[in-house]
Design goal:
calcium; six-stranded antiparallel beta sheet; elongated; 12% helix; 138 residues
């Protein structure tokens, strides 16, 4: 009879130990992942308004509204024109506009989508930060 190797006994014990200490208690890995995918470069954090346990991860962040014609969503639109957003040497500009998107499934064969923009001009902003001359990378 061959002697039992020490590493063949320790490996299952180590795995069992890790599983018993895991806060997920055997939940699938997809439920435990926090952060960007590992095959993509990390995204820098600009502002942190809440701690991770307070973050509301539901999408959309504003609840849809039922209308007589369909469903209405609150939206924001950002103009990200890459290299054409350059307004001067080292300065890029963009715009942000808010409004509503309404999906009307019963209008016509495929339904229709209607946009309703908030009154006023879009919010304009600029930066001196750009990556390889492409603009602000929104």
């Amino acid at each position: 009879m061959a002697p039992i190797r020490r590493d063949s006994v320790l490996s299952p014990i180590f795995v069992f130990f890790l599983l018993t200490l895991s806060p997920s208690h055997g939940a699938p890995a997809a439920e435990m992942v926090i952060g960007p995918p590992v095959d993509q470069p990390p995204v820098p954090v600009v502002h942190v308004h809440k701690t991770l346990h307070e973050y509301n991860s539901k999408y959309p962040l504003t609840p849809p509204e039922a209308t007589e014609n369909g469903i209405r969503y609150r939206i924001g639109l950002i103009n990200d024109a890459d290299v054409t957003s350059k307004v001067s040497n080292g300065t890029w500009a963009s715009q942000f506009k808010t409004g509503y998107l309404e999906w009307r499934p019963k209008a016509g064969k495929s339904g229709e989508v209607v946009f309703e923009w908030d009154e006023g001009e879009p919010v304009k902003f600029s930066t001196h930060f750009g990556y390889e001359g492409r603009g602000m990378e929104l």
